[in-house]
Amino acid sequence: MKKFISLMLVLVMICTLAACGGKETEDPAATNAPVNNGAVVSNGDAAATDAPTENAAPAGEAYTFTYGGTKIAMNAEAGPIVEALGEAKKYTEEESCAFEGLDKTYYYGSFYLQTYPEGDTDYVYCLWLVDDSVETEEGIYIGASQAEVEKAYGAENFNGKNAYVVTSGDCTLTVILENGVVNSIQYNAVVN
């Protein structure tokens, strides 16, 4: 359990890219909206492979997610997505060190969604799954075996230690293993 908590903290730190401090507030955009139930899925391809995997999407397509009918794409405008997802179970914001403004994190029970500011608009920066009730389109979930991950994303995407890393379009998907079992799935925007 300590390893899982430590891993989650590391993922939060990676995702925030050196956040400077924060405060917890109510999310004004998500008041009294129902939380949609569904699965996070992705449409992705193994762009880093020589041959597409069995479950690969068309070449050039970035990974996207759907939760309760709401499509989530990295670098997409966050406002309409957050509104469609409904009230977050928890919301935090931090002064961004990488961007001007506030980084915002929404917790929806099965996943976290983090945004970054650009001008007056927030964009989807990172999404990470935290339990086995959601999965990628390829069927990968917290608790899946390394063999399942390899079948979905290709052996050539294994980093030789503990993770499969696949980039497609402006999204990088990282699947981290511990003792041959998935314990973290994270989607990150590629921001120029």
How would you concisely characterize the structure shown here?
By secondary structure, this protein is of the alpha+beta class. It contains three helices and ten strands, in the order αβββαββββαβββ. The protein is globular and about 45 Å long.
Keywords:
192 residues; 10 strands; 8-stranded antiparallel β-sheet; disordered N terminus; two-stranded antiparallel sheet; alpha+beta
Q: Helices, strands, pairings?
A:
Blueprint lengths: L1 H15 L5 E3 L39 E4 L2 E4 L4 H8 L4 E6 L6 E6 L3 E8 L2 E9 L16 H8 L9 E6 L2 E8 L2 E9 L3
Antiparallel strand pairs: 1-4, 2-3, 4-5, 5-6, 6-7, 7-10, 8-9, 9-10
Explained architecture:
By secondary structure, the protein is of the alpha+beta class. The protein has one domain (about 1-190). The chain is built from 3 helices and 10 strands. It has helices spanning about 1-15, 80-85, 145-155, and strands at about 20-25, 65, 70-75, 90-95, 100-105, 110-120, 120-130, 165-170, 170-180, 180-190. A hairpin with a 2-residue loop joins strand 9 and strand 10 (about 180-190).
